[in-house]
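Changelog-linked ticket: adenosine monophosphate example.
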Amino acid sequence: MIVSEIISEIRHKRWEDKSASWGLVPTMGSLHEGHLSLVRQAREENNRVAASIFVNPIQFNRKNDYDSYPTNLASDLELLEREGVDLVWTPQKSLVYPEIFQTYIDVTQLSKVLEGAARPGHFQGVTTIVAILFNVFQPTRAYFGQKDAQQEAVIRRMVEDLHFNIEIRSCPTVREKDGLAMSSRNANLTKKARAAAPVLFRALNLAKVAIEKGEISSKNIYQLLKNEIEKSECAQIDYISIADQKTLNEIKIIAGNVLISLAVFWDEVRLIDNIRISNK
Ligand code: AMP
């Protein structure tokens, strides 16, 4: 496995064998089974696998979230090596964003709702770094997790609009045994919050069951989710959304392909989760 901070070295390895297909897994490190599931899928579908480890400062809108984001480079590299990754880019912040940096990518509509509304500037940071990664690696395919459902939608829009010749692949959310979606931020939860946090997936499943039983009112589903989550006294709901999967616009009646997503604070730690529902 080649690990490098230097773009010319990454490019050299990438183009060593021009006929090889490459899968890219962008990450912010502090890797867990969720990230590794992306790596495994990339391994299955490509001749070579690349990953990036970079905590992207411009996608954080809260300084405290950035400062407290967990890092663990040595053990990340061990995990990636074990998974048979071929190439890893671990750039310095000053290389990616030198002082004169002034080019940003903005997906103007999809970026502004849900996570984008709650975290202004977040997706501009995401699309900018992903475009940089796409240019550095020029992968055949790139892998993203469904846990970040809006991220996937925004990146697919960017790829279509800017004609990146890259196939976007999405992988299901990997969960702990108790249902909590794996996230690097889980490490920052207090014991009490960690014990309570599985309520998020429990609530999403309750909503799913209610919809399967015939509930079509978003208002009722919203209330059901809210009640369930508020049973946990340390949870502070940031938002609950019931939206069309494609446009991400809020819907009143649950029909077609629906994305139910939520963001909840546990003290300073903000967790997100979602489920997709098809109600024909
Ligand atoms: P991050 O390091 O948080 O930026 O995540 C890197 C990639 O891993 C993103 O595409 C995430 O959507 C994906 N990812 C993070 N957590 C999970 C999970 N629990 N299951 C599946 N994919 C995940």
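Closing comment: Example verified and attached. Residues 2-171 form a domain with the Rossmann fold fold (CATH 3.40.50.620). Strands lie at 2-4, 22-27, 48-53, 87-89, 141-145, 167-171, 235-244, 256-266, 269-279.
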